[in-house]
Amino acid sequence: EVQLVESGGGLVQPGGSLRLSCAASGFSFSSYTMNWYRQFPGKEREVVAGISAGGSTTYVDSVKGRFTISRDNAKNTMYLQMNSLKPEDTAVYYCSVYTSRVRKWGQGTQVTVSS
Question: Which end of the chain has fewer surrounding CB within 10 Å, N or C?
Answer without folding.
Answer: N
